[in-house]
Amino acid sequence: MRLASFLFFVGFAVLLMCVQWRSVVCAMGDDTLRVGMTLVRDAAFQGAVCLDGSLPAYHLHMGFGSGANNWLLQFEGGGWCNTLDSCYHRSLERRGSTKYMARYEPFIGILSNKASQNPDFYNWNRVKIRYCDGASFAGDTMFQNDTVKLYFRGQRIWHAIILDLLPKGLGRAEKALLSGCSAGGLATFFHCDNFTSMLPKTATVKCMSDAGFFLDVRDVGLSHTARAFYESLVDLQGVEQSLDRNCTSARYYPKQCFFPQYALPYIRTPYFILNTAYDAYQFHHHFVPPSTDLQGHWRQCKLNASLCNPVQIDILQGYRYEMLKAVAFFYEYSKQGGMFINSCFAHCQSEIQDTWFASDSPRVHNKKIAEAVGDWYFDRNVAKEIDCAYPCDTTCHNRLI
Q: Signal peptide location in the record (predicted)?
């Protein structure tokens, strides 16, 4: 009993130090790196605040050795809000306020500090940028009435965090990679060239989107569900002014530049697209949204792809065709670009250790995701990998959500 009490006391003391010492890195309960939150104290003066007015934040683990002057920034994902009601409710939880966020975040996958788990970026300065605006870090307006005040300031949050990181070493970067997952992956399309412009001209800067290639495609009911959602988001959060001017001036519907397939041709920085051809989020919310399946015909198929009937599989192959068509020009003509499009039912593969780099990680042409990204970033080999159609890939980690 005395030994048990002593071990409990030690464990509690370590946990208490982790809570109190915000600058330290703690491994609590296992060997996973957990990195403390840094609030951007000067952000309020720039009007760069979360939906509820709280300060924005990031988690930084400093690089070492050969990676001491290299930087990897990872946008957190987490969907969007496109109405006052949904944004208000978002402001009351962790996706809209740093008040409700975990103070320590596990760094795994592309953020891991272990060479065995993250061979090319493990010793870089690695930053997780917390997501609290609901518009992929692209809005710049606000709403206020007698009872509610909401700040749509994602664009300012982005700039405030970069300004906070520049004197910490980002301003002396020799190599840099801007990445993100889901809504964070979409954010890389908006900020890639801007990121490059703020770093030394001698730096090697590249960008990657993981599960952020959201398609402008009709759903199974032939409605533009995704387009309607994003158009209302752009209007509410004042996003259009943050979209690429070359793209918006070239399109009859400027709001379409929120979609990567229209924004990508105007990005000058080398770019990598990591996506599945059957993205689980888009499958559930954009391609077969609940409004198109009131009778529940797709319910089992959404839970387990092996339960999809032949007609549903044919429809999903049509979705894959739209994905490949949207990236065809990039695949064919981009000399600096890379891609890894596998035929798994998943969403976000760089932030999960099992899918990023592990013994049984998904492969395309016998290449893991981390290997493809590394080959592309360091110009070791051509990295444009496209999988055969479902169900040919037996290496998938299917995660229907």
A: 1-27
